[in-house]
Amino acid sequence: MTANNLVFIVMDSCRYDSYQRAKRPHMDRIGEGSKRYSFASWTSPSHYTYLMGMIPHTSPQGVFASEVYKKDFSLWVDRLGVKDLSFKSFVPQLSLPHVLQQNGYRTSAKVSLPVLNPFSHLNKHFDDYKLMANHNDFAGMVKQIEFDESEPQFYFLNLGETHYPFMLDPKNMPHISGVHGVFKRMDDNLGQETEDKFFDDEQMRDLHTQQVRCVEYVDEVLDALIAKAPVGTHFVITADHGECFGEGGYFGHGPIVHEKVLEVPFLEGRKR
């Protein structure tokens, strides 16, 4: 079997119904999307899970969790075109990029969110790991991506376009102290009252609509990446977690227990 190039795209904070509402002809070329559930409610732990080789789950009933894990890991055989991969292939490192390196892949990551920066533990078993200068530069990532016929490529991409407050037009996003400064000022008012007011219903609806537009923008840029990729390249497209836009009195993700924070889109397929 010939190893397939692998492109793993994470639309940060993209909830399933934003994907569902969006016009997404190029994602649909990759595969039919479905609703899955994230293992975590915020960026870092979710990305750690994906880089273990796991994917969003379907929350199956009547089965043992261990059997679900075994089945999920075995699916990498078909995705990669590499024989005999199983859960045992991933231990003890529990690392997808390590397994790929062991099978001759060049491993590259391009991330948008500072919490995933190259000094984090995520930067392990990657030949190249880059935090982009801008938080919503999927187009810049695509320009930098190259495929080499001499070795299979693994590209792991974290996209900030769908993450508040980087949603394509941050100047028009409603403001939270510190967050718009990429957390640089979060300590300034530690223990003090701030003047931030919770977003009203109209702002919440606008934010949700903006995330839908961002999915459509990502889909447009995806067309150029598909064009670059050789036939046989396997794409995985998902989100690390969802987002609340006012449901249940919540906004955002992380310390929130709500179904909209855990519902994510998932699709995969091979370029034909």
Write a structural description:
The structure is a single chain. The chain has helices at 16-21, 25-30, 43-51, 65-74, 76-80, 87-90, 96-102, 138-144, 201-228, 259-262, and strands at 6-11, 34-37, 106-111, 128-131, 153-159, 234-238, 244-245, 251-252, 263-270. The protein is of the alpha/beta class. It has one domain: Alkaline Phosphatase, subunit A, CATH 3.40.720.10. The strands form 2 sheets. The protein has a 7-stranded mixed beta sheet. The chain has a two-stranded antiparallel ribbon with strand order 7-8. A hairpin with a 5-residue loop joins strand 7 and strand 8. Helix 8 (138-144) packs parallel to helix 9. Mean pLDDT is 91; it is low at 180-192.
Write a brief caption for the model.
The chain is of the alpha/beta class. It is built from ten helices and nine strands. The two termini are 17 Å apart.
Assembly form of the protein: single chain
CATH architecture: 3-Layer(aba) Sandwich
Q: In DSSP terms, counting alpha (H) and pi (I) runs of 4 or more, how many helices?
A: 10
Number of domains: 1
- What is the CATH topology classification name? Alkaline Phosphatase, subunit A
Q: In angstroms, what separates the terminal alpha carbons?
A: 17 Å
Could you tell me the number of beta strands? 9
* Beta-strand fraction estimate: 15-25%
Q: Percentage of helical residues?
A: 25-40%
Unreliable residue stretches: 180-192
Radius of gyration (Å):
19 Å
What would the average pLDDT be, to the nearest integer? Answer: 91
The secondary structure category is: alpha/beta
Strand order in the sheet with the most strands:
2-9-6-1-5-3-4
Largest sheet: 7 strands, mixed
